[in-house]
Structures are given as structure tokens and as C-alpha cells.
Specification:
8-stranded parallel sheet; two-stranded antiparallel ribbon; TIM Barrel; alpha/beta; 10% strand; 379 residues
Length: 379
């Protein structure tokens, strides 16, 4: 593989190396995918203000997210089934993030368990939680995250019901994959993936199987998954989480000013402006288009982070100019993971860091904290 220069280079390599059902799980949105596309396209509409003859010799990307020092304000987002992009994927991505000095967020629906990732790393990582009907299981996840010394809990708010994801349905997505003719053909086209996957025992949802009540095999897991989402969730449930967690709390899935105000009232430490990567409500606005409105509404009361559509260091810088204090990348690190495992995740982070640093310099700034609307044109 030639040295990748862009996140799109990693995406091209991952498409060749990862079975179609898993690549498309990472690289798709719900229904018509209009929101998924808008997440990326709306970044391109934001234009930067070029400055010259400014001292840019000493530059720093160092920052903080919820009080944690980071080498740049970019966290690896919680992504389901990363361990099916590459064997032991969550463990490798967490190690790459740790070495790079940025947060890694483990998904509830990861392949590697909380304990797997804790054993593979030395520094605290973040854990993403879904609250479902089985509150005992949610409490168990919180306790396990505390036992693993996770330094922040990211509570996802926008999955009370599953958006219709056509590609996943058509692909018959499952972990591990079913042995249908189509799945066998997909895997046969990715022999390196198959060979490496044989070297791990982690091929299903490590945080769920053997932990959720009655879920000890794939058939029970399928039944539990279809029944577990809780459409009755309300803001009062966040108090329950806060009481049991007791640490830094980030609320993910805010896309409306009123919801942002409600989130502030919970006493959370940060919110993430997010539409679940375009995988829930198709037709919703892009995350970056809503970011300025939400920053204007609550930016003086709570940290505002953003995810969705970030594919470069320039996108990170644009989000910071619009008032975000932190950003999350999901698909970029998954492309790197699928392309080359841990090395690919490091490459993805290096690409973003290099682009962020160069863009900041060409905008005439030395530190990220100085970025604002003044660095954009006609915004």
C-alpha cells in the first residue's frame, strides 16, 4: 500500500480489504443517505480566510476536552463493530489513540469488550453508553466502565428507535457474519481479512454476550437487540446515569437548540452536536450547519463538541472556528483500521494533524484557541 496522503486514500484501501457488509456498515447512512452526504458536503461550503506575513513559526495544536489534555481536539468516536473492520480493532484503535494523545471512545456495541480494551491500554479511555430497557444491564456497563477507570462516559441520546439503514438490511449484517452464499463470496474476496480474523476469538459483541440477561449465543443476541431499544427515554433518565456514574458526562446526539438547553440543565460536562453520522433521521440537517446555532444558544454554559462529516484537518479547523471545543472522527479512523490495522489508525490521525497544522498556519494563526469566525469568509 502506498503511503496514504488523505483520508480518502485510506477509504479506497479499506474498501478493497474489508468484506462489503462491514465496509458498508461503516460507510453508509439511513434511507436516502441525504443527511450522510450533507455532513460532508456542508463542510466544503465553508471558506477560509487566508492571511500572509504573520509570524507562524511556533505553532501548537494542544488543547483540552472535558478537562483532559489532548494533543489536538480530536477524539475517536464510538463506532459499532470496529472489530469487524480489522480483528481486535477496538483494542488497536485505542492503542493508536493513546500513543497519539487523543481520546478513544469505546462503543457499547463493540466487538472487543471494555475489559479487552482496558487490558490493551495503559491510560483511561472513554466509554459510550446506550440506555435500554434492561436497566440492570446498563448499570452493569457503567460499573464495568468505572472498574476499567474510564475517564468519561458518552451517553448517546438519539437511538431510541433504529433508523432504517438499507445497506445493512440488504447485506444481512451480523457479527460474526452468517455463512450464506453471499457472505462467503464477500469474505472470499478478502482473504487477508479472513486469515487475520481466524487469529482472534473476538468476533461478536464483547460487551453484550455473556453480560446481558439471557444473552449467551447469537440467536439470543438477535432477539435481545431487537427488543432492547427504549422509546420511553426522557431527560429524567440522565439523572439516573449521573447518579451511578459520578464522573465526566458527555451527551451525544444534540441537533436542536431546545434540546441543547435541556442538556445544559442536566449538568453534563459537554454535548456533541451530532446526527449519528447520518444513520438515524435522514433529512435532518448536517451537524456542522447546526453547530453555530447551538454554540450561540449554549456555548457559554457547556462545552460544545461536534461529529459527522469530518474527513480532514481542515474540517476540524472549520468546526473550531464555528465554536466547537472538540471534534470526533468515526469513519476516518475506521477507514484507517480497515486499510492497515493500528498503523492505519495512526496514519489517519497523522493526516488530520498535518492538515490541521498547515491550515491553521495558512490562516495566520499559531494556536487553536485563537480561531474564530474571523478566520472564515462571509460567515
Amino acid at each position: 500500500m502506498h503511503t496514504p496522503l488523505t483520508i480518502d486514500d485510506l477509504k479506497t484501501h479499506a474498501r478493497k480489504r474489508v468484506p462489503k457488509m462491514f465496509f458498508e456498515y461503516a460507510d453508509s447512512g439511513s434511507w436516502t443517505e441525504s443527511t450522510y452526504r450533507a455532513n460532508e458536503e456542508d463542510f466544503a461550503k465553508i471558506k477560509l480566510r487566508q492571511r500572509v506575513m504573520v509570524d507562524i513559526a511556533e505553532r501548537s495544536l494542544a488543547s483540552e476536552m472535558v478537562g483532559q489534555a489532548v494533543s489536538m481536539p480530536v477524539a475517536l468516536a464510538p463506532t459499532g463493530m470496529a472489530g469487524m473492520q480489522y480483528p481486535d480493532g477496538e483494542m488497536l484503535a485505542a492503542q493508536a489513540a493513546e500513543e497519539f494523545g487523543v481520546p478513544f471512545t469505546l462503543s457499547t456495541v463493540s466487538i472487543c469488550s471494555i475489559e479487552d480494551v482496558a487490558e490493551a491500554t495503559e491510560k483511561p479511555f472513554w466509554f459510550q453508553l446506550y440506555i435500554n430497557r434492561d436497566r440492570d444491564f446498563a448499570l452493569n456497563l457503567i460499573d464495568r466502565a468505572k472498574a476499567a477507570s474510564c475517564s468519561a462516559l458518552v451517553l448517546t441520546l438519539d437511538l431510541q428507535i433504529m433508523g432504517q439503514r438499507h445497506k445493512d438490511i440488504r447485506n444481512g449484517l451480523s457479527a460474526p457474519p452468517r455463512f450464506t452464499l453471499d457472505h462467503i463470496i464477500q469474505m472470499a474476496r478478502c482473504p487477508t481479512w479472513c486469515f487475520k480474523m481466524l487469529g482472534t476469538h473476538r468476533r461478536t459483541f464483547g460487551n453484550i454476550v455473556g453480560h446481558a440477561r439471557g444473552v449467551n449465543d447469537l440467536e439470543a443476541l438477535a432477539s435481545w437487540t431487537s427488543d432492547t431499544l427504549d422509546p420511553t427515554l426522557s431527560w429524567e433518565d440522565i439523572e439516573w446515569v449521573k447518579k451511578h456514574w459520578g464522573g465526566k458526562l458527555i451527551l451525544k446526539g444534540i441537533l436542536d437548540e431546545e434540546d441543547a438547553r435541556m442538556a445544559v440543565r442536566t449538568g453534563a460536562d459537554a454535548i456533541v452536536v451530532s446526527n449519528h453520522g447520518g444513520r438515524q433521521l435522514d433529512g435532518a440537517p448536517s451537524s456542522i450547519s447546526m453547530l453555530p446555532r447551538i454554540v450561540d444558544t449554549v456555548g457559554d454554559k457547556i462545552e460544545v463538541h461536534v461529529d459527522g462529516g469530518i474527513r480532514s484537518g481542515q474540517d476540524v479547523l472549520k468546526a473550531l472556528c464555528l465554536g466547537a471545543t472538540g471534534t470526533y472522527v468515526g469513519r476516518p479512523f475506521l477507514y484507517g483500521l480497515g486499510a492497515a490495522g493500528k498503523r492505519g489508525v495512526v496514519q489517519a490521525l497523522e493526516i488530520i494533524r498535518r492538515e490541521l497544522d498547515t491550515t491553521m498556519a495558512l490562516c495566520g494563526e499559531q494556536e487553536l484557541r485563537n480561531l474564530s469566525l474571523k478566520n472564515l469568509i462571509n460567515f
